[in-house]
Amino acid sequence: MxxxxxxxxxxxxxxxxxxxxxxxxxxxxDGLVLRGHxxxxxxxxxxRTDAALESFGREGEWTGWSNVRNTLTLGGRFARMGRRxxxxxxxxxxxxxxxIARHRVGKVQTYMRPVNPANMKLFGxxxxxxxxxxxxxxxxxxxxxxxxxxxxxIYNCARxxxxxxxxxxxxxxxxxxxxxxxxxxxxxxxxxxxxRAANRKLIIAGNVSTVPHEKDYFERELKPRFDxxxxxxxxxxxxxxxxxxxxxxxxxxxPIEWEEPFPVTLPEAMLCGTPxxxxxxxxxxxxxxxGVTGFVCDTPDQMRDSIARLPEIDRRACRADAERRFxxxxxxxxxxxxxxxxxxxxx
Length: 347
Known about the structure:
Layout: E1 2-6, H1 21-34, E2 38-43, E3 52-55, H2 64-81, E4 87-90, E5 106-111, H3 117-125, E6 131-135, H4 138-144, E7 150-153, E8 176-179, H5 188-198, E9 202-205, H6 212-222, E10 231-235, H7 239-248, E11 251-254, H8 265-271, E12 276-279, E13 294-297, H9 300-308, H10 315-326, H11 328-345
Parallel strand pairs: 1-2, 1-4, 2-3, 4-5, 5-6, 6-7, 8-9, 8-11, 9-10, 11-12, 12-13
Helix pairs in contact: 1-11, 5-9, 8-10, 10-11
């Protein structure tokens, strides 16, 4: 098949540091090429892929005007492309597909964040054809389903070959890890509270948001609590550093305070054998088998108590479940089957 993958230009594919869905797009593009498909990726400048790359936009720019400009740019590309592609798979803004909504070409729109059902209704009113919506968790699907449309759930993935299973970790003494963007909704402050209550070392890795109120959150509520002994902040990390950290950690802490869609760090941690301790929010509980690959909690006290139970977790079981449900091979196959379905339906 001739397949177009489309991603917002804000973060390159794959990202250098923070970025979840961009990693999935990178794995999917390379996996489809390996299976013999002709794949083109429209993404930010600086992206790297085995597919044919056609960049657009400016990395790091996310304003009202840039979104309009990018939408118009892509609309112009669609107007010139003819029947170049069998399937167009958009991981970016739904507006990118508006100019081809009624075209008889298979289209997939993937959501990795809560959905506004009004957008589905809009596409229904303009007579969109051959369009399937996918969500990275059932929790996200439920936010968009009231708007109508054909919905499927396909989780985010990680590439097992890149992650090493670590089994020689002392679950009762190894440090805990918080990994992610340091914004209030990610819950780093709660991770600190829980680690202190359990008297366990906590390593925090991730980038500080450029949004003013989130920068203030970091400066006022997190930074004063870093003592370099029990609680340590090491800044953003690259892939190699992340894998090493996960492999040396007793658990990855996810005390999220929002409806987290399905973080890529979840399968990444599991592929290293690292269990999750997470709040029951968004799609995160769908990725954890409670008591087997981690613990799903409702309160900080439950998180603290779960730390004491970490020796019960078999790290090999974490790896095995991630390979079974969230590997790049499994997720690429799911999307490939969906593309074939769309092509067959379109004649």
